[in-house]
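Fresh eyes needed here. Have a critical look at this protein's tokenised backbone.
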Amino acid sequence: MSRIPFVKAHACGNDFLILDEEHAHGRHAVLAHKLCSRNTGIGADGIEFLERRPNGEFFLRLFNADGSEAELSGNGTRCVAAWLAASEGRQETALGTHGGLRTCRLIRRDGVDYWIESNMGIPQVTPKTIEIPGVEGPIHGAVVNVGNPHFVLFPESEAFSSHNLSWQALGAKIAVDAAFPKGTNVEFVHPLAPSHIAFRIYERGCGPTTSSGTGTCAAAAASMALRGSARRLSATTQGGTQQVAWPTDSSEMLLTGPAEIICTGEVDFA
């Protein structure tokens, strides 16, 4: 039996555990599956394993609640940056991920919220039409890469439903479709104004989530590149609103939003 320190944090309701890599001992997937369980564990959408390298650099490995490893999480990265600001006073932190380096800056602290601006890389947006067995008609959308894979579509329904399915049901089918050999995150976007979008997220390895940092970037990038949305916009999910700025197709996207440290503690793990 080992006792593992943890931090729990959330960004717009998208919650994560933060564990030091030194406690993983190769058990990343098992720890994620066990500790992220809402009923028998601590509960979270995923675990960010934080490695402190001898040269002073940080590296994150993200494991989803189902035990699968993902390239990165924008919200998870922001939660880690908030924790480092709270625990070590770091105003700017560069965090390596399998999806690329992400630099996070503390903009301000507002009560319990740490407002973080993150460099999110240069999105790649490609229109794509897919067909899924059992779903009527083609599904028009866009593949968006922001360090991890996304498929973005624009349903006309304000309830985000499409093809006679709820967004949750259609998202579950798209996320594991053969068109995406490694799976994909799925965003359903409804424009509210030129500088404001609302959307819903079906997250690979997790299911419906209240928010997603990379999902926010993907939804915004597709809206800007394909639907003429403003290059600086607000993106609202069930968990809240984040701000996205992408001046040109060749420039780096910036994402700004809150993160809150929920608690710290220790968990016994056999």
About this structure: The chain has a mean pLDDT of 97. The longest strand covers residues 254-269. The two ends are 4 Å apart (CA to CA). The domain at 124-251 is CATH 3.10.310.10 (Diaminopimelate Epimerase; Chain A, domain 1).
